[in-house]
C-alpha cells in the first residue's frame, strides 16, 4: 500500500515542486516503510488535496534567468545529503531537481 501511495505522489511531484524534498525523504523507505512514513505520505496527499487550486504561474514578460541550489548536511536516517536546485525565468519556475546523494560525504576541516 505504501509503494502505491508513493507512486501516486511521484506523479503529482511532476507538477508540484513544493513536495520534492519530502518525496526524496519518503522514497528511502520503499522497501521497509514504518507506520510514521505511511502517515507522512498520507499527510502529503492531504496537503495536495487542500492545495489543488494552486497553480504554477508564468508571466508574459519573463525577465532574467536565475539559478539557485542548496544541499543538506546529511540526515539522521542514513547520513546521506540531499541536494537540489531551481531555475527561474523571471519569477516563473521552469526547472527543478532534487536528489539524495549516493554516498555519505565527509568534509575534513
UniProtKB/TrEMBL annotation:
Protein name: Retrovirus-related Pol polyprotein from transposon RE1
Gene: RE1_69
Amino acid at each position: 500500500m505504501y509503494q502505491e501511495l508513493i507512486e501516486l505522489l511521484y506523479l503529482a511531484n511532476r507538477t508540484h515542486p513544493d513536495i520534492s524534498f519530502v518525496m526524496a525523504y519518503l522514497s528511502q523507505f520503499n522497501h521497509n516503510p514504518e507506520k510514521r512514513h505511511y502517515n507522512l505520505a498520507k499527510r502529503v496527499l492531504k496537503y495536495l488535496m487542500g492545495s489543488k487550486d494552486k497553480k504554477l504561474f508564468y508571466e508574459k514578460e519573463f525577465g532574467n534567468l536565475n539559478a539557485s541550489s542548496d544541499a543538506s548536511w546529511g540526515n539522521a536516517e542514513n547520513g546521506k545529503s540531499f541536494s537540489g536546485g531551481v531555475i527561474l525565468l523571471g519569477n516563473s519556475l521552469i526547472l527543478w531537481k532534487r536528489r539524495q546523494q549516493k554516498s555519505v560525504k565527509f568534509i575534513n576541516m
